[in-house]
Amino acid sequence: MPELSGFGVIAALAGVRLPGVVFVTAYERYALQAFEVGAIDYLHKPVTRARFAAAVERARERLGRSTAEQRDVLVAQATAVERARGPRIRFVVRRGSAHHFVPVAEVDWIDVADNYLRLHAGGATHLWRGTMKEAEEELDPARFVRIHRSAMVAVDRILAIRSQDAGGHVVELRSGVKLRSSRLYAERVRALLR
After folding, report:
1. Can you give 43-109 as a three-state secondary structure string?
2. pLDDT value at position 74?
3. Is pTM beyond 0.85 here?
C-alpha cells in the first residue's frame, strides 16, 4: 500500500473493535506478527484457489460467531469513516465497458430516471446508479439544493427563481432549463433567497 502497511492500518484503528483482517502479501516474514495482532489468516503470494477458499471459510466462520451488537458497532464505525470523507467530488458513470469520471463541479442539475440519476453537465447527460437520497447525502449542501423529490440543482447554475401561486417555484438555470419545485421543498428554495 502506498501510505500505510497493513500493520499501519491496524495501528490507526487503535481503540476501536477491529474488523476481520486477512493479510495477503508477498512477504512470509510478517506472518507471526499478523497473528499476534489478531489476523484471521495470512496468505502468501501467489495464492492458490484452495488456500484462498480456506481463508474465506475461516473468515466466514469467525465473523459468523460475532454478535449483532458487534456488527452494529462495525457498521457505525464504517459509516463514521464514510462521513468523515467529506462531500462527493465526482461521479463514476459507466458507458459500455468503460467507466468515466464526471466532476461534481460540472453538474448543472440532477433528476431521477428509474433506478438511476441523470446527471446534466453542460450539454451532456450521464446515468449514475444511485438514489436521490444518496446524492443529497453525499453532495455539499452549500452547492446543491433539492427542489423536488426527483430533482436537485447546482446553486451556482441558478439564474432566477420565480414564485408560483400554488406555493412552489420555477427555478431557471443559466442554461435556460426551467425546473418546477414542489411545495414540499419550497422552504429550501426560499432559503436561497435570503
Report:
1. EECCCCHHHHHHHHHHHHHHHHCCCHHHHHHHHHHHHHHHHHCCCCCEEEEEECCEEEEEEHHHCCE
2. 47
3. no
Q: Looking only at Cα atoms, what is the longest distance across the chain?
A: 74
Q: Residue 50: which of 58, 39, 61 has the closest Cα? A: 58
Residue partners of 97: CB distance under 8 A and separation at least 6: none
Distance between CA 170 and CA 19 in Å, rounded? 49
Q: 12 CB contacts (<8 Å, ≥6 apart)?
A: 4
pLDDT at residue 2, as a whole number: 44
Residue with more model confidence, 150 or 12: 150
Q: How far is CA 54 from CA 13, 133, 185, 193, in A?
A: 26, 39, 53, 61
Between strands 178-181 and 169-173, the pairing is antiparallel
Q: Output the nine-digit C-alpha cell for 101.
A: 469520471
| 3-class DSSP string for 18-40 | CCCCEEEECCHHHHHHHHHCCCC
| Cis amide bond preceding 87, omega within 30 | no
Residue 22 pLDDT > 70, yes or no? Answer: yes
Asked whether the beta carbons of 90 and 103 are under 8 A apart, the reply is yes
In the three-class reduction of DSSP (H, G, I as helix; E, B as strand; rest coil), residue 135 is classed as helix
